[in-house]
Amino acid sequence: MKLFLATGNQHKIEEMEKILADTDIEILSKNDIDAMPEVIEDQDTFIGNSLKKARKIAEYTGMSTIADDSGLVVEALGGQPGVYSARFAGEHATDQENNQKLLELLKDTPLEERKAYFICAMSFVSVEGEEYTVTGKCHGHITFNALGEEGFGYDPLFIPKGYKKSFAQLGSEVKNKISHRAKALEKMKEYLMK
Predict the structure, then answer these.
(1) In this structure, which topology does domain 2-193 adopt according to CATH?
(2) What is the pTM for the complete model shown?
(3) Where do runs of H (alpha helix) occur along 40-117?
(4) Binding site annotation covers 82?
């Protein structure tokens, strides 16, 4: 089975390829085609964005497609950054700028009120138009300053529940077992194997 991963994020591609490595699914991505159309993520839910992306890219490539939309939800901020996680500090914000904004907004928030979770909504759209959506969550809390060099996005600020290190310190082997994307992808993998 050929499956197209509809993401422009190289980190996500690598993460998903590792998780699907033990299957007979042939994975293709932006690295295998000339160009991928940009899909504007203008829906107000993670599922809405992932479905929109999967439909558009499946139509464009003529291949069954998986797309995801993920982000960070911080309880003390009323669910922010949420669907705006990638552009929290502005339309073309860097990870560092987004992280700085988050830390600034939480600067007077005590540790016990810094609960957060990463969520990943993942959608599959087949060339025949079949659709399936799953979500995965990873609960934890936000640190007071960036920790670690690995990972991307908010990884240096997020300590998953049951751990003392941030996603950026834990390394990809641990992260690929416990992350929101790993949980969503495991559910998706189960569905695809059927």
Answers:
(1) Maf protein (3.90.950)
(2) 0.89
(3) 46-61, 95-105
(4) no
153 is in an annotated binding site: yes
Each domain of the chain, given as residue ranges in start order, spans 2-193
Cα(46)–Cα(71) distance, integer angstroms: 8
Residue position matching structure tokens 């600020």: 157
Catalytic positions are 69
User: Which pLDDT belongs to residue 19?
Assistant: 79
Percent of the chain with pLDDT over 70: 100
Q: Are 50 and 67 in contact (CB under 8 A)?
A: yes
Classify residue 164 as exposed, middle or buried by CB count within 10 Å of its CB (0-12, 13-18, 19+). exposed
Q: Is 155 annotated as a binding residue?
A: yes
Q: How confident is the model at residue 95 (pLDDT cuts 50, 70, 90)?
A: very high
Q: pLDDT at residue 35 above 90?
A: no
CA distance 158 to 169: 10
How many residues in the chain?
Answer: 194
pLDDT of residue 11: 76
Alpha carbons within 13 angstroms on the beta-carbon side of residue 16 total 28
Tokens of 54: 């999967």
